[in-house]
């Protein structure tokens, strides 16, 4: 067992982790490990928003983005997912990860800046770009299995051994190196600046992003039935709550998304991604709101029944970004899109 | 809103509380407030253990204890509760509280020392005495209603205003003044010393005791049905787990008890009381073990459905005691009694 905080990012603490040094988690979990030379990553969400079915222009734009992801300075990994939002719009989001911000910057200058600038003419579709560039101290990952990386972990050097800091509330904070010395409290409030159809968000300090996913592709029939009938409906209720009523508890936006394959067909993978006022607000919802207590209870029951035989794979990545690590822009999107609600 | 830590016990922190200063709990809770002159309390559990029905001698011993609770240096409050343990023995425990240890010492010298010494001849019954004398820094209370005190709160000066540090995991620790500067980690292990039928426990540092109760006496019919049918069975399962299998997770003993009236009839009040290796072990069970997640989920569902109209009253008191604040002795008790399992 090892600490989720890699040795090279450990420092003298002024703040304590929540568990004693002899804490033994009740089941194994793993984190992504990066080469010590990696100082910062980039996570870029490129969204396309439309009603009804997609026309030729946006379809070509998606194909163009896919091509750009193979161009010079390409991301180390990308995937694509979709959801229908509360306003009835379909959102297809292409998510790309880089392990060097300078490479991302070069790529973005060549292929990314136009996405949500309004330069694209996409038959009335909306587009948005949401980028975080957290330093290594400011994000953490967690995986139920070390066999399949997702998200930012795909651009890592591989998985850790079993880590200590998980299976208790506050684990995400304790896995994040910055928590050794920082409260990660939010400062200020995000502000939307409107220039016609184009809107950008002036960020606040310590915004929090979580991408939390599940992959039921490997589950045998009985486990799949349990996931789809006993767990997924409870998860969906919680996701709907955050989407519709999250603002009061500090959740700016939540998208419960289905991952797509190269042809745009739905895979047996989903994730929730949500923007939060702070890590603390996310912690409070996760540990004490009835909707997440219900999700946790359903997941506990499921995992207790199956034990180590469970084939469902769970993962998440949580970032807490300073203002200079954030970039949000929206073109022709409806008012409840992403950080526009903030 | 105020801090659960009274002003006169606040000190410069070397350890942080888990929530930010602007944290707003989602519902009100209250703590017992003591006069600043109160530096330490005593909580004494006098147990009587027997199989089948009670005979004359133990009945007289209970009456004698009741009389002693009215004698000089009497406790400020006492109550009595019973349960049938996993070995099939009935345990009647008389629980008394003092707000001055010197007064307790005087009372104990006159009326208490003989209880579990073997001096009582009680038709083969077992007896035990379990005493904690925590300083104010080392215990905390929590009440869902400020209208009815229970346990140690009855010897307090009254209830606080709404407090901040509750409704999140780790709240008990954050309410305990010692947590401002101490990890409250256990040191050493308790050891049982046997002298014939008499056994005492040489304690370890930072043992943890919780008494956590519910009072459904004021609930109207529909709420009572919900409590008894939807919540109580889940609570009982958790209590049974701790009683039968708690040792592996640091719970030395758990008693799920029914409070008795002066005639020995059951009131509509119950509580769990359990001895733990450490506050951390209790925290881990409470926040992540399936049995308590189920209790928490059932309680959340119940309280969400009823809102502020709920008439169920909940309370607890948690102590973390140094070795010099503990006293355990057992006479003719079975091996699975209280701290004898440690």
UniProtKB/TrEMBL annotation, chains A, B:
Tell me yes or no: is RNA-binding among this UniProt entry's keywords. no
Keyword Heme on entry: yes
Provide the alphabetized UniProt keywords. Answer: Heme, Iron, Lyase, Metal-binding
InterPro entries, per the entry: OXD
One matching Pfam family is Dehydratase_hem
Q: What cofactors does the UniProt entry give for this protein?
A: heme b
Q: Where are the transmembrane segments?
A: none
> Care to name a GO molecular-function term for this sequence?
lyase activity
Q: Which family does it belong to?
A: Belongs to the heme-containing dehydratase family.
Query: What's the protein name?
Result: Phenylacetaldoxime dehydratase family protein
